[in-house]
Design goal:
The protein is an all-beta fold. It is built from no helices and five strands. The N and C termini lie far apart (about 30 Å).
Length: about 70
């Protein structure tokens, strides 16, 4: 898994009824785009995470729309 600052990390819900969570990668702490990542949720909460196999990186960037 490789990511850059500004990418989105999608963590798929693992059980029926749990929706996917999407967080923004604000810092790459590993080498060459590898985990761990500092991520920020929509509510502003930040944490450091090493994504599991239920996660994918969305490399599309926010186009600056407000």
């Amino acid at each position: 898994m490789h990511a850059s600052k500004g990418d989105r990390l999608v963590v798929h819900g693992r059980t029926v009824g749990n929706r996917d969570r999407v967080v923004e990668i604000v810092e790459v702490l590993g080498r060459d785009g590898n985990p761990p990542y500092r991520v920020r949720a929509d509510d502003g909460h930040e944490t450091i995470m090493t994504p599991g196999p239920d996660s994918v990186v969305d490399h599309r960037r926010d186009s600056g729309r407000s």
